[in-house]
Amino acid sequence: MAxxxxxxxxxxxxALCASRAxxxxxxxxxxxxxxxxxxxxxxxxxxxxxxxxxxxxxxxVLGEVLFYSRGQVVTDYTWRDRVRGVRGSLYTxxxxxxxxxxxxxxxxxxxxxxSLYEIAGSLVPPEFATIAATTSTVRLVFAVVEKxxxxxxxxxxxxxxxxxxxxxxxxxxxxxxxxxxxxxxxGLDVNALYVIGRLYGKNNFSRSPAQTNYLDxxxxxxxxxxxxxxxQSEADWRPAVAVGGQGIFTFRDSPQPNVNDPNxxxxxxxxxxxxxxxxxxxxxxxxxxxxxxxTAGVMQGDAGDMVASFTEFLTPDALRxxxxxxxxxxxxxxxxxxxxxxxxxxxxxxxxIEWVKFDGALLHPFMVNFKMGYFLHLNFDIGFLKFDGGYDxxxxxxxxxxxxxxx
Length: 407
Fold this sequence. Notes:
Blueprint: H1 2-31, E1 51-53, E2 60-69, E3 72-74, H2 77-80, E4 90-91, H3 93-104, E5 109-123, E6 136-146, E7 185-203, E8 212-232, E9 240-252, E10 276-289, E11 292-300, H4 316-321, E12 335-346, E13 349-357, E14 366-372, H5 373-376, E15 381-387, E16 390-404
Parallel strand pairs: 2-6
Antiparallel strand pairs: 1-5, 2-3, 2-4, 5-6, 7-8, 7-16, 8-9, 9-10, 10-11, 11-12, 12-13, 13-14, 14-15, 15-16
């Protein structure tokens, strides 16, 4: 009897130890999907995050996503790209675990530990009220331990600011700011485009002074204020949608080349005749597929007249003498469909291509512009302008700055 009692006690003790070990393993898998050792102590985030939530139940509605490293919140755009969740999206424990694994795949961390905190006063949208595990949105925090870093006294490496994804060269996108925290809201950019000149061009106009042209100065500045409202956020299958408007002030630091003078005299004065204010309203849809951001949309307004200033072959004189059109013919467009593809292999060096057609304009011009900063390591772009009777290859410089949001 004593031996039987002792056996029962030993079996119960073993079961209790196994139960505790399993509970510890479950807790580790919930709070730290990717940990180098089970004995690693939890990362302390300090005060200010809010009330911590258990990750046993879900789903939750995201309010924001943060990264915590070496005692402070860190903004690293390459890390944020690995997290699929955006504000207002419904998120599960599996989604969080997948994001943690994706962060670990960067090869920069020894450890990634996600945690959830309730954001007081931020209620979930009504459509999620019966689905979400909490009545408030949550703050998803990824606490990370970077490789080769010991202690919290080492300075955080700040990444270079990312290239704006709110526009390419001439065309906008449905994104705003740097596109990392995309959510419906307002956006404001300033874009400075300088059309340096023609690198090479050909035409088949019988009365043209030359059928081949190269290294001709254009000298057109375009200063654009681009304001937009993203009305729909991007989801797994749903594109981001935005409406907006652009105000454009254009002037020259060189007079437009004369069709009878292949070597015009240059001047740095922008006369009243060479300045103009244009504008357009637009609708754009954008979708990110892997590292590629694709956009399609249409612009409506007199901004389409800009194409006439990029080459002398679209001036009224050229239309009359080269194309044989009646006197007074001018290039005007009020509708401009466009499409673009953008990829950012490095934060400061984007690659992109955009196409824009100037509907209704004489000689049916369209442009294909190539953003080539990644290969050249400088802000130099190439434009291909095609029209009935010829084409020009243009050198461009474009600077886009996000005023809001500015991160």
